[in-house]
Design brief:
Length: about 375
């Protein structure tokens, strides 16, 4: 009963914060299941400006993950509605393909590039070409590292994502009051994705004091980022690692109390492994992106929560940034301190994430038009 009450209180607070969204106020200081049918939504107005012209290149990492299909579709729709020609490309998680696609965008006359990179350190050479051609670059969701060609960064507050996941586990286990100890395992994302370190850092900053004092026990011993990273955010990689963890630490009936998963694709792998190999009480499982398969698992009681990042809102803010650049003005930002890509701090706009669980998913995901009820059956 205590867990349900805490969940309800926490859900109400987080649902209220959805109203903040991508507003102009600066946030506090400091992606993924297999592709499903895209969200049936009507995107919010991208910008009040009309009559934009010019070409925008949009480079997305892959079509294999649901969230990138939604990001790309939302971006294309809103940019076209604002009057721009759009060259949208997906790179199948292949770095060489993404580099080639960006080269083609440059040579075909793109005036602004919006790039969700596969590997944040892999685009220096091609972006040097963009800079030489006078093309502005917006890093989208994933910060592009070690390139002075990056003009702006549009993302959600990634440290806050991890903080909210850590706080959820803290509240659900009542770590400040319960005796414990509780068993925890940790799964984060691709080491080449700079966001993974922010997600991990935000959550670990919340949970590490309880690990240090023994109230949280990581029986696998795998706590450091390098040991808990998941290449390509792969469901299969997460499932394989969880299989090994269960076999070595929980096959004898030892209870697993919580699994910190940085996103939904890793959470899906963990869930698949638990269903096949674990016989104890079901643990708390976190996630991110509210992918269809994971929301269904939430409804079924197999996943506890998922961070909701409304890609319509991020796309709308990015279109505002593009529109400002095209018209020769400064793009809107609300953070000029946090995100240093190795060449300096990149002016950023950080949208605020919220979490969804079984108590509030209808309000956040269905009532808002992000999904239909049929998509979640």
């Amino acid at each position: 009963m205590k867990k349900k009450l805490l969940s309800g209180i926490l859900s109400a607070v987080m649902a209220a914060s959805l109203l903040v969204g991508c507003g102009g106020a600066a946030p506090a200081a400091s992606t993924e299941a297999p592709a499903s049918e895209p969200a049936a939504t009507e995107a919010p107005a991208a910008t009040e400006s009309a009559g934009g012209s010019g070409k925008v290149g949009v480079a997305m990492p892959t079509k294999d993950l649901q969230r990138w299909n939604q990001d790309g579709a939302n971006m294309e729709e809103q940019l076209k509605a604002a009057g721009y020609e759009v060259d949208l490309q997906y790179a199948s998680n292949d770095i060489a393909t993404q580099v080639s696609q960006i080269e083609n965008m440059i040579s075909s006359g793109a005036q602004v590039l919006v790039i969700a990179s596969i590997d944040g350190d892999s685009l220096g050479t091609v972006l040097a070409q963009a800079k030489e051609a006078g093309i502005k670059v917006i890093a989208y969701d994933r910060l592009i590292m070690n390139s002075d060609a990056v003009s702006y960064y549009a993302t959600f507050d990634n440290y806050m994502v991890g903080t909210k996941q850590g706080e959820y586990i803290k509240q659900q286990l009542d770590l400040d009051n319960a005796a414990g100890p509780f068993n925890l395992e940790i799964f984060t994302g691709d080491p080449g994705d700079n966001n993974a370190r922010f997600f991990y850092g935000g959550a670990i900053d919340v949970l590490k004091p309880y690990i240090d004092n023994g109230k949280l026990v990581v029986k696998s011993g795998q706590v450091d980022f390098d040991n808990v990273a998941t290449a390509n955010w792969s469901t299969e990689n997460a499932q394989s690692r969880m299989d090994a963890i269960i076999s070595a630490n929980y096959a004898d009936g030892t209870k697993l109390d919580a699994v910190l998963c940085s996103n939904d694709s890793t959470a899906l792998g963990v869930t698949n492994s638990l269903e096949a190999n674990y016989t104890g009480d079901w643990p708390i499982i976190t996630g991110q992106d509210c992918d269809v398969a994971n929301v269904k698992n939430m409804i079924a009681g197999k996943q506890s929560m998922s961070i909701f990042k409304d890609t319509r809102t991020l796309a709308a803010k990015t279109v505002e940034m593009v529109d400002a650049i095209m018209k020769g003005t400064d793009a809107p930002v609300n953070d000029t301190k946090t995100y240093d890509n190795g060449t300096g701090v990149i002016p950023s706009f950080l949208c605020e994430p919220v979490f969804a669980d079984v108590n509030n998913y209808k309000e956040l995901l269905i009532d808002s038009g992000y999904y239909t009820e049929d998509q979640l059956k």
